[in-house]
Amino acid sequence: MNAEELKSRIDEIIELAFERVQYAYDNNKETEPKENSEHKTRLVFPSYSNNKTRISEQELRFCFVEAFNEYVVKEKLPLYYSVETPTRDKYSGFSEKTPQRDDNGRSGEFDLVVFELEDGTMKRRCLIEFKANNAYHYGHKKDFVKLNNEQEWCNRNEKEKDVLLRYLIELIDGYDKRTISSLKKKTKEIKKDTNFVCYSLNGEDISDKINQI
């Protein structure tokens, strides 16, 4: 599968995932459940002790996995996934908020990696990090350090590029001009064609607003 076809497939899965997240947020809140016969997902948005709904990257990740499984089975694609996937390279500074590639560091993790089974080999094709709630600057930076590291794109043994795509996918409760400005500053470090997708729980894909130069 080439990069163009894979991107088209991943973009479709992301859209389906966001539809599920939105459905769960509108219908399946722990403190405000609604009777609905559609059942697009059984995911529930839980609440804190003060009854405020929790919104995190976990809801997005699980809806992505649900959508991924349904989509690849329907389309009969040789795609698979892993979660909390060890990086190929080493890093340091994650606890000191100075993330960097470091030969003397240790392996990090990707939230999710999409694999393609090709000629009997599982090949990493897409690296994905999830974010929520306009996470602080360091939270974005440590993901970009991993996603933009060319060492992550190449097979360890053959040193040939197998990773075709990288994504940072974010979910936010709502937004205003300050939110857009904040996310623009935090994502300006996106380089080397890492894809940034952001969805607001008012039902709007605001990726273009943030990605505009």
Secondary-structure blueprint of this entry?
Layout (H helix, E strand, L loop, with lengths): L2 H25 L29 H19 L3 E14 L7 E2 L4 E13 L2 E12 L4 H11 L17 E8 L4 H11 L7 E6 L3 E2 L1 H5 L2
Parallel strand pairs: 4-5, 5-6
Antiparallel strand pairs: 1-2, 1-3, 3-4, 6-7
Task: Please characterize this protein's 3D structure.
By secondary structure, the protein is an alpha/beta fold. The chain has one domain (3-211). It has helices at 3-27, 57-75, 137-147, 177-187, 207-211, and strands at 79-92, 100-101, 106-118, 121-132, 165-172, 195-200, 204-205. It has a seven-stranded mixed β-sheet with strand order 2-1-3-4-5-6-7, with helices on both faces.
Strand content: 25-35%
Task: Provide mean pLDDT, rounded.
Answer: 93
The strand order across the widest sheet is: 2-1-3-4-5-6-7
**What shape does the CA trace take?**
globular
What Rg is obtained from the alpha carbons, in whole angstroms? 18 Å
What is the N-to-C succession of helices and strands?
HHEEEEHEHEEH
Q: What is the makeup of the main sheet?
A: 7 strands, mixed
Distance between the termini: 31 Å
Question: Can you count the beta strands?
Answer: 7
Name the structural class: alpha/beta
How much helicity do the residues have?
25-40%
Uncertain stretches of 5 or more adjacent residues? none
